[in-house]
Amino acid sequence: MKKYRFFAIIALLPLTSQAAIFGNDKLKQDTMCIVSSGQEMTKKCKEGDVLFFQPSVFGNEQLPINIAAYACNFQYPIVWNKGGVTCIFTDQRKASW
């Protein structure tokens, strides 16, 4: 019986917002923080903003993943590639900046 409950919950996940599942239903994603450097990010972005980091210089493949490690809330999806990062911003690791 437990096995069926598990599969029923998994089947319903796409129909339920991730914020409600994790108890963060107050998160608003209506503010986007668009930056091209880590310094700019620390000044402009606020907790819960959608962070769009697109570096002004292309080629450092480590930079987007470094920004994700320092500034992204890991309770939400993080999208990155060689050219940038998009995620929900957090300042929880501000001491590491």
Structural account:
The protein is an alpha+beta fold. The protein has one domain. Helices cover 33% and strands 16% of the residues. It contains 4 helices and 4 strands. It has a 4-stranded mixed β-sheet with strand order 1-2-4-3, covered by helices on one side. Strand 3 and strand 4 form a beta hairpin. The longest helix has 11 residues. The protein is globular. It starts with a helix and ends in a 9-residue tail after the last strand.
- Overall tally of structural domains: 1
Stretches where pLDDT is under 50 for at least 5 consecutive residues are: 4-17
What is the share of helical residues? 25-40%
Strand content: 15-25%
Mean pLDDT: 78
Order of helices and strands: HHEHEHEE
The number of distinct helices, counting runs of at least 4 residues, comes to: 4
Count every beta strand, where a strand is a DSSP E run of 2 or more residues: 4
Name a few traits of the molecule:
four-stranded mixed sheet, single chain, alpha+beta, 4 helices, 97 residues
Characterize this entry briefly.
The chain has 97 residues and is an alpha+beta fold. It has 4 helices and 4 strands; from the N terminus they run H-H-E-H-E-H-E-E.
